Amino acid sequence: MHESHIDATQPKPVLYAQLVQELQGLIAGEPDFIANLANSAALIYHSLSDLNWAGFYLLKDGELVVGPFQGKPACVRIAIGKGVCGAAAAQRTTQLVRNVHEFAGHIACDSASNSEIVVPMIRNGELLGVLDLDSPKLARFDEQDREGLEKFVAALLAAT
Which positions fall inside the GAF domain (predicted)? Predict the structure, then answer.
């Protein structure tokens, strides 16, 4: 069993540096993408505060399909361009939504979610899926989260 050593009270840049380091140690030498996504979702969910969902949607046959996650049961399929996850996939850019109720077309898989950040996973120009984090707290995510989570996804993709 893996013991996490992340100090969630640190400033966000330090926290995310610790998270990336922890991720690299956790998935080192493991080639299975799904296993690494599962451990990555658990690492994020148990390391970051104020989350009610953390996980991945994977691109399959032209749509996003739920992958490994932590939290309540989720929407299984999301069309490209629909909701925050679909927008991140279509635009291939991180979507930082401080209030999901103001996001046109938001898909409410969990009515407790109030803010969301979605980072696309792109390797060699190919969209593999997205990392999706939801929070019951309004404005939970900011630019430091964007930067940290983009580095996290880059480290995950580099190791798998």
Answer: 47-158
